[in-house]
Design a protein that fits this description.
Elements lengths: L4 E11 L2 E11 L2 E7 L8 E4 L4 E4 L1 E6 L1 E2 L2 E2 L5 H12 L3 E8 L4 H15 L9 E7 L18 H9 L4 E6 L6 H10 L3 E4 L6 H9 L4 E2 L10 E3 L2 E3 L2 H6 L5 E5 L7 H11 L4 E4 L18 E4 L2 E4 L5 E4 L3 H10 L5 H8 L1 H6 L17 E4 L5 E6 L2 E5 L2
Parallel strand pairs: 1-4, 1-5, 6-9, 9-10, 10-11, 11-12, 12-13, 13-16, 16-17
Antiparallel strand pairs: 1-2, 2-3, 5-21, 7-8, 14-15, 18-19, 19-20, 21-22, 22-23
Length: 388
């Protein structure tokens, strides 16, 4: 069978060693076959002219609820494919579909769909992310309150045991059962993450000791430094900062977290421990403003509950995250790119095949111009978007 070969040339290529000016990336059958400086001859290759733009690794989305008018909570193959396809056009080349707090049957339906998609050749789906339902009711935000509960071993143990598709589960570490939950997740290859919480230092320390290594949408749905009467208390935010190896993710839409705080997270936690996420809902990456959840409306660039009581999620896309970091938070482009690709891959144990432009890795590639506008997306060798 003849190999499909693509040569992307004439741009600045971002590699783990830095920028390669006038670089070339050769792609064969969905993999990166070569990254080099200069224009090299490749027989039979389709040539993509990057026109002097930046050739970078595609985005890896750790936390996303839907897009294109569909929500992953629907659990159907159609909903998954529609939402994934919508976000791929905006630079997301790998994805962890995310469920808000859900019932056990809803979780099982989504896992079955996720398993099917993960088994397909060249699939962008890397696993399922469960955001809840083990949360502090006082920090539930837009999560459905009827599902909120402390960890229930009779529920989570059979779910974790039944699948290899579940890659992450979030929980509020002040809840009873945190230690058992964290250890069970960790022992079975599921990343335990802190989320929707009122945790103070003792709770974060308990979570760390139980295997929690990540924090969901840092600064959102968690307290910072505060007073209880005349006594000062560290919040979840300050407690997390005291664990240098604990990774965080930030909704870099410029709305959920102000650009000043985005920059501070980047400065304190560093590129290696900070990932960019959209936390996007069904109304994102869509020509329609009709969300799957009838409680959600679009207002001022974010999804909100219809009663305007709380932020529900963002309408951001991967390219917007990078642009916001560079243009509003004054983060260098190369670091914003790493936080959208290399760092998520490292957090999820996928750096061996994704996250950077290197020989042998999946050909997940985006091309941005000097204004950080996206023009080209390739997902495992398949061109998803080409506006060069």
């Amino acid at each position: 069978m003849e190999q499909k070969i693509t040569k992307i040339t004439g741009g600045r290529v971002f590699t783990p060693q830095g920028w390669v000016k006038d670089g070339t990336v050769v792609v064969k059958d969905g993999k990166i076959a070569e990254v080099s400086s200069g224009n090299i001859d490749v027989a039979g290759a389709e040539v993509i002219d990057a026109k002097g733009m930046d050739i970078v690794p595609g985005g890896i989305e750790l936390h996303i609820h839907g897009g294109g008018g569909r929500d992953f909570m629907e659990g159907t193959e159609e909903a998954f494919r529609t939402a994934i396809a919508a976000h791929m056009k905006y630079g997301t080349t790998s994805i962890y579909p995310t469920l808000s707090s859900s019932s056990v049957p809803m979780i099982k339906a989504a896992l079955a769909t996720c398993e099917k998609l993960m088994a397909e050749e060249g699939s962008p789906v890397l696993g399922l992310h469960l955001e809840g339902p083990y949360f502090n009711p006082g920090k539930a935000g837009a999560q459905m309150p009827e599902y909120i509960t402390p960890p229930i071993p009779a529920d989570y143990e059979p779910i974790i045991d039944s699948t290899k598709a579940l890659k992450r589960w979030d929980e509020a570490p002040e809840l009873p059962g945190t230690t058992e939950f964290g250890r069970y997740c960790t022992d079975h290859g599921v990343l335990a993450a802190i989320a929707h919480t009122k945790a103070e230092y003792v709770d974060v320390k308990r979570a760390w000791d139980a295997g929690f290594r990540h924090v969901t949408h840092f600064y959102n749905a968690m307290p910072g430094f505060h007073n209880v009467r005349e006594f000062k208390h560290e919040g979840t935010v300050e407690s997390v900062y005291t664990f240098p190896e604990m990774s965080v993710e930030m909704i870099a839409d410029g709305i959920h977290v102000p650009p000043t705080i985005l920059r501070m997270i980047y400065m304190v936690k560093g590129v290696e421990h900070t990932a960019l996420i959209t936390d996007a809902l069904a109304c994102s990456a869509s020509d329609s403003d009709v969300a799957f959840d009838p409680r959600v409306i679009l207002e001022d660039g974010v999804c909100k509950l219809a009663d305007r009581s709380a932020l529900a999620g963002s309408i951001a896309t991967m390219d917007r995250l990078i642009r916001t970091c560079v243009q509003k938070a004054e983060i260098p482009l190369e670091d914003a790119i790493r936080m959208s690709s290399e760092t998520p891959a490292r957090i999820m144990g996928e750096l061996g095949r994704k996250g950077t432009l290197e020989k042998g890795k999946d050909a997940d590639i985006c091309i941005y111009d000097g204004d950080v506008q996206l023009h080209f997306v390739m997902q495992q060798g398949n061109i998803v978007r080409n506006e060069l």
